[in-house]
Amino acid sequence: MKCSRDFAILEIRAKPPYFPMRSFFIRDIEIDPPLILSPMAGVTDYTFRRLIKRRGGVGLVVSEFISVEGLTRNNPKSKRQMRFDEEERPFAVQIFGGRPERMAMGAEMAQEVGADILDVNCGCPAPKVVKNGGGSGLLREPKLLETILKEIKKTITIPLTLKLRTGYTESTINVVDVAKMAEQCGVEHIQVHGRTRDQGYKGLANWEIIRQVKEAVSIPVSGNGDITTIEYGLQKWRGSGVDGILIGRGAMQNPWIFRQFEDVLAGREPYQPDVAEKKDVLLEFFAMCREEMPEIVALGKMKQLAGQFTKGLVGGAQFRQTLYHSHSAEEILDNIQTYFDTLEHRSAFGDGVVEADADLEFTSCEAPELIETASV
Ligand SMILES: Cc1cc2nc3c(=O)[nH]c(=O)nc-3n(C[C@H](O)[C@H](O)[C@H](O)COP(=O)(O)O)c2cc1C
After folding, report:
1. How far apart are CA 28 and CA 32, in angstroms?
2. How confident is the prediction along the chain (376 residues), in pLDDT tens digits per residue?
3. Which of 244, 265, 286 is the last residue before a domain boundary?
4. Which of 43, 146, 186, 191 is 20–30 Å from 307 (CA)?
């Protein structure tokens, strides 16, 4: 039995490339390839970003969103979230908050630690973020957002970028106007997740609105939402005419998705990792986590990634059950070994059933409790 993701790739392989891949520039920073690892709180930390970057095909990585209230009050967690490695460049730090002077201070701190780009979060729907005027709350207050952008521009010299949702509610979609205002303020790249704040993660991202943003401004625009296969990504990319795309959840399910995209856009066969490589990527991640964080947090991170990574794989549900009930690194390593051995020998793991994925929704910009508390 094959996993459904492989089928999608095979279909693409039979067709010629749709258009040549072109990098784009955020001022003098080349985004090459024009594929961005979308920021995800509790996921795209120092460890995960390097894991994905090493698979290839990623033109830009972004930190998790970082609270400027935490940063400017010397919260150790916020400071730690700005940590990055040279191998990650170009690297953007994303900040959130609702107070102009704090946002400017946070932006300056990001520049001081050596970030290449400063990104402002204008999309997080979480109530505790919105309540304090940050994230997608700023879509309801474009004047405040304008003040924030102007204050930040006065403070930093690195490029300023913005990540937006389409609007706060379906009846107040305003991303085109917000993008035009941001361009006037000196923002140099707009990223649009094609959902409203009210939508959360329900339904599908609206790429038609993303296309309208692309047409309305002359700075680069990247689109985002629901790309988990090359075929869907190419369709949305071509239809919207954007300069680049961001992939979030799809990178957890398939860490090679960027490389496969790059291959297809360059007219090559998409890279296909074998079972051994799939196992190795989980082991590499676990080893990196164990170096970086307390064991309990590393176990949580591993369960989180493995849960997404084995989505749709034969016997994945049974494998996850064994992982969720693993309480030590040794147990996890044993279970990974056993699961991938069975996959390699094409034998069944558990009852060999491909499970429905409904239990694996992964849709929040609030960091999971375990990671949040244990890493402070
Ligand atoms: C767990 C989780 C955490 C997220 N955290 C952030 C964040 O910190 N900053 C941000 O701009 N977007 C955040 N997002 C939104 C993603 O960057 C992205 O816009 C969204 O998931 C849609 O893209 P996708 O369908 O490729 O995942 C988060 C999404 C998820 C699922």
Report:
1. 12
2. 344 444 444 444 435 445 566 899 999 999 999 999 999 999 999 999 999 999 999 999 999 999 999 999 999 999 999 999 999 999 999 999 999 999 999 999 999 999 999 999 999 999 999 998 999 999 999 999 999 999 999 999 999 999 999 999 999 999 999 999 999 999 999 999 999 999 999 999 999 999 999 999 999 999 999 999 999 999 999 999 999 999 999 999 999 999 999 999 888 999 999 989 999 999 999 999 999 999 999 999 999 999 888 887 888 888 988 988 898 999 999 999 999 888 888 666 655 444 444 455 677 776 444 333 333 2
3. 265
4. 191
Contact indicator for 159, 111 with CB cutoff of 8 Å: no
Q: Is residue 372 part of a domain?
A: no
Same domain? For 258 and 338 the reply is no
Ligand 1 atom closest to residue 363's alpha carbon, by position in its atom list: 31
Which ligand 1 atom minimizes the distance to the CA of 193?
19
Amino acid code (one letter) for 142 = P
Please tell me the pTM assigned to this model.
Answer: 0.91
Both 85 and 148 in one domain: the answer is: yes
| 209 and 97 belong to one structural domain | yes
Residue 163 φ/ψ, nearest 5 degrees? -115, 120
Q: Do both 41 and 125 map to the same domain?
A: yes
First-to-last alpha carbon distance for the chain, in angstroms, is 43
Q: Are residues 249 and 289 in the same domain?
A: no
CA distances to 105, 164, 227 from 138, in Å: 18, 9, 26
**Number of separate domains in the chain:** 2
What's the gap in Å between 276 CA and the centre of ligand 1? 29
Residue type, 284: E
Instruction: Find the domain containing 137 and state its range.
Output: 15-265
Per annotation, catalytic residue among 124, 185, 289, 365: 124
CA-nearest residue for atom 25, ligand 1, is 226
Is there a single domain that holds both residue 307 and residue 230?
no
Q: Cα(285) to centroid of ligand 1, in Å?
A: 20
Confirm whether 3 is a catalytic residue.
Answer: no
Pocket-forming residues, ligand 1, beta carbon under 6 Å: 38-43, 64-65, 94, 121, 123-124, 163, 193, 224-227, 247-250, 362-365
Render 83-111 in DSSP notation, one character per residue.
---GGG-SEEEEEE-S-HHHHHHHHHHHH
- Asked whether residue 2 is domain-assigned, the answer is no
| One domain for residues 213 and 160 | yes
Residue 368 lies in a domain: no
